[in-house]
């Protein structure tokens, strides 16, 4: 059995009257690609926000490699190796591709990390996502798909042990999605990947296990075959998969 890299116990977040995340016990094994699926408003983004430290829990704990990180700031978690790319594109449009990636690289290694180390991290991340020839372009002029890839490169420049991707294929073309699937497989050779994803083709192509969330709770968890065959999942979620607004 592989090492548990991440574990939450009773993790909860209330927004006014609403339990957006409700007492979630969750474990992730080192090296796996885990997909989190579930309808809009199920609490997926809040849950990964709690893991990344961008949202404070109402109660419960988060442990990374056996260490309680519940009270650590998001930047401190980044330095431990937890990287999070946002659902909403989060690049600096006025800066170049290289500068955007360098900011991420520096936030892991400290502002005074050796310049050569930062430059090498930028080059490596850009090459992995296929943006090597765009390094000096202003990020704002990139196509939407390339901006999403830039975000992934920024996540990679953090040199993560756990990479959290929140709906990374949203708005990508079919060709870009194929490239993304290949990219995540490559990333998973060195990192654990936690992927919130609506596109079930992408989920089925990538995930070793799938966690289904509904109303802040885990409704089901299992292999793609188990989840596909789960009647509760079919009722609650898969039946509504054709809803394009999902
Ligand atoms: P998902 O990512 O699965 O679509 P979210 O985690 O974004 O779900 O949201 C879960 C629930 O929490 C939703 O009902 C949403 O409206 C609510 N919510 C999320 N963020 C906030 C916030 N900052 N303030 C109040 N309610 C929020
Ligand atoms: Mg979301």
Give an overview in words.
The chain is of the alpha/beta class and 246 residues long. It has a domain at 90-157. It contains 9 helices and 10 strands. The chain has helices spanning 44-52, 74-80, 97-109, 115-129, 144-157, 174-187, 200-206, 224-229, 231-236; strands at 4-15, 18-29, 33-37, 59-64, 67-68, 82-85, 162-166, 192-196, 209-214, 217-222. Strands 6-7-8-3-9-10 form a 6-stranded mixed β-sheet, with helices on both faces. The chain has a 4-stranded antiparallel β-sheet with strand order 2-1-4-5, with helices on one face. The two termini are 35 Å apart. Mean pLDDT is 90; it is low at 242-246. The protein binds adenosine-5'-diphosphate and magnesium ion. Magnesium ion is lined by residues 44-45, 87.
Brief synopsis:
This protein has helices at residues 44-52, 74-80, 97-109, 115-129, 144-157, 174-187, 200-206, 224-229, 231-236; strands spanning 4-15, 18-29, 33-37, 59-64, 67-68, 82-85, 162-166, 192-196, 209-214, 217-222.
Keywords:
246 residues; alpha/beta; six-stranded mixed β-sheet; four-stranded antiparallel β-sheet; 9 helices; 10 strands; binds adenosine-5'-diphosphate; binds magnesium ion
Number of helices: 9
Q: What small ligands are held by the chains?
A: adenosine-5'-diphosphate, magnesium ion
Which strand order spans the largest sheet, edge to edge or round the barrel?
Answer: 6-7-8-3-9-10
Point out poorly predicted stretches.
242-246
Strand content: 25-35%
Question: Can you write the helix and strand succession as a string?
Answer: EEEHEEHEHHHEHEHEEHH
Rg, alpha carbons: 18 Å
Mean pLDDT: 90
Number of strand elements: 10
């Amino acid at each position: 059995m592989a090492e548990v890299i991440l574990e939450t116990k009773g993790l909860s977040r209330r927004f006014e009257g609403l339990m957006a995340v409700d007492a979630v016990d969750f474990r992730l094994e080192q090296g796996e690609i885990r997909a989190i699926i579930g309808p809009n408003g199920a609490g997926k983004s809040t849950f990964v926000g709690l893991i990344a430290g961008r949202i404070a829990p109402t109660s419960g704990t988060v442990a990374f490699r056996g260490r309680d990180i519940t009270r650590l700031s998001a930047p401190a978690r980044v330095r431990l190796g937890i990287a999070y790319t946002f659902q909403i594109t989060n690049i600096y449009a006025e800066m170049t591709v290289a500068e955007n990636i360098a900011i991420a690289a520096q936030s892991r290694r400290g502002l005074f990390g050796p310049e050569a180390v930062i430059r090498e991290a930028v080059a490596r991340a850009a090459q992995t996502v296929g943006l090597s020839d765009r390094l000096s372009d202003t990020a704002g002029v990139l196509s939407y798909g390339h901006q999403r890839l830039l975000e992934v490169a920024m996540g990679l420049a953090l040199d993560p042990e756990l990479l959290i991707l929140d709906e990374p294929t949203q708005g990508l073309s079919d060709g870009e999605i194929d490239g993304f699937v290949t990219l995540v497989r490559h990333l998973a050779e060195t990192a654990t990947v936690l992927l919130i994803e609506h596109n079930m083709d992408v989920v089925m192509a990538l995930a070793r296990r799938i966690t289904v969330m509904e109303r802040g709770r885990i409704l089901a968890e299992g292999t793609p075959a188990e989840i596909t065959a789960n009647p509760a999942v079919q009722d609650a979620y898969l039946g509504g998969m054709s809803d394009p607004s999902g």
